[in-house]
Amino acid sequence: MVKNRVIGVVSGKGGVGKTTFVANVGLSLVEINNDVTVIDADISTSNLGMHLNLYQFPLGLQNVLDGDLDIFNATYMHPTGLKVIPTPLYIQNPRKSYSPNALKNLLENEAGIFIIDSPPGLNRNVDLVLKASNEVIVITTPDIASVTDAMKTVKLARDNGIKNINIAVNRVSGKYELTREEIESACDAEVIGEIPEDKAMKACLMYGTPIVLAKPYSKSSIAFRTIAAKIMGKEYQPPRFLFIKRLFG
Fold first, then answer.
1. Taking the domains of the chain in order of start, what are their residue ranges?
2. Contacts of range 59-68, beta carbons closer than 8 Å, 24 or more positions apart
3. The pTM is what?
């Protein structure tokens, strides 16, 4: 068995920015390590490719899981060097579920770092991701409802034997929100990072350019890069004269 890192990115509900997180952290990781692959395991409502301006991919993860294609031929290269295994936007006759170990069996002999974009919520295909992962990052927003769902997701990951579990808090504004300490206490897991609310995110999705590329000096981009560095056991050093660079882009 090849030693690799498989990080499942999961959430207890949709709309918390899970796919945005995968795209931006994946791109930030590839700046540190050149062997990084992001996988769209949200088979029924896939959109990771759109976040990365990749639309022309008739074949993807579903074809590999069905046994019609090997993983190499389902991998697409982003201009940055990030490898992407997408799921087609439209799938004829999609299967409702796969064996829980299907994705794990595909990745166990593959080297590198894999970041898996899980389906939202706690449906059956989330087990596909959890069984394949040796680490998990749970995405939440800092409101009570989302954190309650994150608590359930952390428990589910632990029930699957995963010990390395972190929380990433997205869309932080500092108003009427749970604090980092409250979220860590509720979920019994460490917060690996907080990403501030950023109005530019919508435009980034529209143009298929993640914010770490479109606005590399923004507070949210720095947050994504800081998280990526922590994943690699490193300390992120922000660029010099960051305030001035923000003024010009």
1. 4-247
2. 59/88, 60/85, 60/86, 60/87, 60/88, 61/85, 61/86, 61/87, 62/87, 62/88, 62/91, 62/94, 62/95, 64/106, 65/95, 65/98, 65/102, 65/103, 65/106, 66/95
3. 0.94
